[in-house]
Amino acid sequence: MQADIFAKKKRNTLAFLLLLGAVTILAMIITEYNALKGFASIPKAIQWGMANFYPTAKSLEKLPVILEKLQETLLVSIAATTAAAVFALLFSIFGSNTTRVNPFFGAITRGIATVFRNIDVAAWALILLFSFGQSSLTGYFALFFGSFGFLTRAFTETIDEVSGGSVEALKATGAGYFSIIFQSVIPSSIPQLISWVLFMIETNIRSATLIGLLTGSGIGFTFNLYYKSLAYDTASLVVVVIIAAILLIEYASNYVRKVIL
């Protein structure tokens, strides 16, 4: 019996791999992508990067300006994430199967979160450009809307998984709705919720670089400015600063996760 199950899984895996390979080949044919040419260009790209794309003593003079723009990007990312987390918590409480007021209202809140989650932050930035123009506010709202959709989904699943048993116990004792929320749901879910917020901050710092290219603000715009002006040494310094900031934020968030989880 187990041999048949193993053989079936093996056949399904093989069929999936064959299907994936066929889809990949079909996509390469449709897009006229030459894989051999692509791999052959890698050595030339590395050679160009080593010859041109590295910081110099002259580029270090621009470091204070770069750090100022990096600070702007970090603050916008953190502010957008924390504000989105507050609204996401409210929507997740009303949308969770454990704490929803009624199924209809829960379905509406889930639907709203789904719409926001399935629109990429870059698409949000392009949409908001028509209203706010190229500014930090556009980047803020793009990150806010993207974070809101993702965190609402993550918070909802966290509440459903973590708080189910304790909510049922409080309901059995006749506790009110708000007592259940503040004495059971939030206390039991808070470590996971904080973990999701930290993860979203990391993600938004990466996304903010791309958003800056579109909104003309932050560290992304600074990189684009130097790169298009052929100041490759300064552009490479921007990349180094971004990587260092991301690694530092990731280290800090991992440390916080170890403490709270």
UniProtKB/TrEMBL annotation:
Cellular location(s): Cell membrane
Protein name, UniProt field: ABC transporter permease subunit
Source species: Cytobacillus pseudoceanisediminis
Similarity field: Belongs to the binding-protein-dependent transport system permease family.
Pfam families recorded: BPD_transp_1 (PF00528)
Domain called ABC transmembrane type-1: residue spans: 70-253
Recorded topology in the membrane: Multi-pass membrane protein
Major place of residence: membrane
Domain of life of the native organism: Bacteria
InterPro entries, per database record: MetI-like, MetI-like_sf
Transmembrane segments: 12-31, 74-94, 177-201, 207-227, 234-253
PROSITE patterns the UniProt entry points to: ABC_TM1 (PS50928)
UniProt keyword terms in alphabetical order: Cell membrane, Membrane, Transmembrane, Transmembrane helix, Transport
